[in-house]
């Protein structure tokens, strides 16, 4: 478990530091970037938020609040509180046209900054839990690497970066978005800003 949580945080940190991100959209306080490497597509959503970084961290690290701003989260329950910094959740997502509803078993790892210039981190990856085998009513999907980095700008504002390495399980939710026929990433980002502020 210690290795899983370490690799969860390390994978997100590594993804965030990769060179070669291309900006695809800029709105008032939201920027969307993409990164392609071989068959792997990642995206980054950067939000400017008028709350202190520690407040954004406490709100974004509690996944039971996620349904308030992310309509891709239908239900979210804690399966196991591994420690103060690690929790395992079971998440269900609504069906997309022509697709079965999906579910995910995820490990969420939280890290506070060790030094002032470091971000708060909320890292997410799929894990296997014997107690929650795949069920016929859902298509069990996988998150390779996702999460938030929260950088302090001032005592009352911060930059929230959401990262996601895209797998085929998440692709139906993003395909329409990246081709421009849907604005779900932007809408979710704006809902997130509203929720945090």
UniProtKB/TrEMBL annotation:
SMART domains from the UniProt entry: START
GO cellular component: cytoplasm
PROSITE patterns in the record: START
Upper classification of the organism: Eukaryota, Metazoa, Chordata, Craniata, Vertebrata
GO molecular function, one term: lipid binding
Domain START: 16-166
Protein's UniProt name: ACO12 thioesterase
Name of one Pfam family that matches: START
Gene of this entry: Acot12_1
């Amino acid at each position: 478990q210690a290795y899983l949580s370490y690799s969860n945080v390390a994978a997100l940190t590594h993804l965030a530091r990769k060179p070669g991100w291309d900006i695809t959209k800029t709105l008032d306080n939201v920027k969307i970037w993409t990164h392609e490497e071989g068959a792997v597509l990642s995206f980054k959503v950067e939000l400017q938020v008028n709350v202190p970084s520690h407040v954004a961290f406490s709100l974004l690290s509690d996944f039971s609040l996620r349904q308030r701003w992310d309509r891709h989260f239908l239900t979210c329950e804690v399966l196991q509180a591994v420690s103060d910094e690690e929790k395992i959740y079971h998440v269900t997502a609504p069906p997309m046209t022509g697709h079965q509803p999906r579910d995910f078993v995820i490990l969420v790892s939280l890290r506070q900054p060790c030094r002032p210039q470091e971000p708060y981190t909320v890292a997410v990856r799929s894990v296997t839990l014997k107690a929650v085998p795949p069920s016929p009513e859902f298509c069990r999907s996988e998150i390779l690497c996702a999460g938030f980095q929260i950088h302090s700008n001032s005592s009352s504002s911060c930059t929230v970066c959401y990262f996601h390495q895209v797998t085929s399980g998440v692709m139906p939710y993003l395909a329409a978005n990246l081709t421009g026929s849907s604005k779900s990433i932007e809408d979710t980002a704006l809902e997130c800003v509203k929720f945090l502020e």
